[in-house]
Amino acid sequence: MNTTTTAGKIPAWMSRRWPAAARLLTAALLGLATPGCLVRQDLYDQARAEIQREREAGERARAEAQLARAEAAQRSAQAAAIEAELLRLADDLRARDLQLSDVTTTEAGLARRLDELAAMNEELSARLRSAGQSVGQLANERGSLSAELAEARAKVDELRRHQAAAEARAARMRDVASRLQATVDGGKIRVGIRGGLPLLEISSDALFDGARTEVKPAGRKLLADVAGALRTIADQRFQVVGHTDDRKARGANRASSWDVSTARAAAVVEVLIEGGVSPERLSAAGAGEFAPVAPNASEEGRAKNRRIEIVLQAEPEGAGKAPGEAGAAAAP
Q: What are the residue boundaries of the OmpA-like domain, all occurrences included (predicted)?
């Protein structure tokens, strides 16, 4: 059978996107364009199939590129949120520096006052000596002022120690956050400061199902990562504090939000101990619904209030004392 056709050029875009298919199609078209040449049907079918495969491969590549761009944008947004949190921590440290500066100014004022009184004392002493009177009373006044100055200096030293300890705790918590970077980026853990103490905040919904107080499997995996990071901070105590929203826990065998929050904190402590954190470094407490971080007027606010906080505690005066808060229920 003689088949005659006009040989058309293969478009440049087809040659670039599907080079193998373009070559097969070119061979088929040349066969059609050559008088007396028989075109094999299977060669033509093969060319069409190759074009289809390469078209599908191109569509998959475009979809993957689009997904990669979306993930990059999400990671940029998460990095911006972490940077904002670090800026807020820096602001807190600057506020403490201002407080220390005020106390230092007070100390300088007391020192000047002491010098003025010392000069006055010398003048009065000279007058009293000439009059044959005792200067014992003025000496007592001077001693009292000296005691006040010593007390002020002791307070300044104490504030400096507290400032250094707070900065050290913040640095340790930033180190923990860096070790949990993937989890922080995913929004499951938030780093913050409350009451002057750095903490890790975990949503209760990530750890517990509904109103239950047993840690779910996914929560155990998350807490295992947290335990691994906490183990790297030597000789540091942590308190796990449970919080709830203002709704009564339905289906929970607990009398109040105090019971639920305390039971959840104790459950988290047990998982952290299983993850290798020393029990002597842990304590648990429940705050119920009474320490919210958002209004309970919306579901979003209630979700923020249902949380577990792992607080890096200040070392108590005197070694060996167990950490804890007055009125909080504690667990080993």
A: 195-316
